[in-house]
């Protein structure tokens, strides 16, 4: 009697590679033009946005930083929900997978915004090269900003890995995916140690809730797989073929 062995579940990517690249390139170029080129072409418009000491870029960068970290948190929570099987209760594994990927893409877009818009801030005064090269922002917390830059590049690699999964295979993809834990920790510590808002009560509550809830899901995931190992769920036996009824 044969036994059904479940194949690793493969889900279609929810956003195709062309749409992803178009979106990614458009947001990057649009922001670079807005932050680096427009102020010299249209100085009056740039002045009306921020005056002599434009803080608007700084506020925008800080706001999008938290949006990006929150989307990363949500993507991690959905991913853990898929592996610890909580997602079966809600919203279902395929929907959780699609959301997990989509939210990660959106979070990366906000991280791009967060990083590029800070180029407009005259106090931090980063150059484009410093933005691209980890640990090179000598005048502003190079180590912790560098950790944020590493988190960003890891994020790019993980997003690309969604698209090359058929090429690298499911096992390598899963292995690569474990880097997301390191990425989240890097994003979290980067925010904690380079952010202006860290000393604010709301920001500290935010960081505790973000890290604490993921730790809970992570421990639940480990316990679920230990319990599955100790008491393996009974595998369904394959149904014997239903005999055809003779018709005429
Ligand atoms: C190229 C990559 C990155 C660069 C250059 C960068 C740069 C910075 C800088 C300069 C600050 C300090 C801003 C301030 O408060 O004055 C900061 C804060 C922050 N960043 Fe990033 N970052 C990068 C990637 C990321 C990523 C990937 C995340 C999310 C996962 C992130 C989340 C945050 C958070 C939450 C803060 C704290 C904001 C605050 O306290 O107001 N950053 N980043």
Q: Name the structural class.
A: mainly alpha
**SSE pattern, N- to C-terminal:** HHHHHHHHHH
Shape: elongated
Ligand catalogue: protoporphyrin IX containing FE
Which regions have little confidence, pLDDT < 50, spanning 5+ residues?
1-8
Q: Would you count the extended β strands for me?
A: 0
Q: What is the radius of gyration? A: 23 Å
Structural notes for this entry:
- The protein has 248 residues and is mainly alpha-helical.
- It has one domain (17-230).
- Helix content is 69%, strand content 0%.
- It contains 10 helices and no strands.
- The chain has helices spanning 17-41, 43-50, 56-83, 93-117, 128-132, 142-163, 165-168, 170-177, 179-194, 201-230.
- α3 (56-83) runs antiparallel to α4 (93-117), α3 runs parallel beside α10 and α6 runs antiparallel to α9.
- The protein is elongated.
- The protein binds protoporphyrin IX containing FE.
- Protoporphyrin IX containing FE binds next to α3, α4, α6 and α9.
Short description:
69% of the residues lie in helices and 0% in strands. By secondary structure, the protein is an all-alpha fold.
What key attributes describe this structure?
248 residues, mainly alpha, 10 helices, 69% helix, elongated, disordered N terminus, binds protoporphyrin IX containing FE
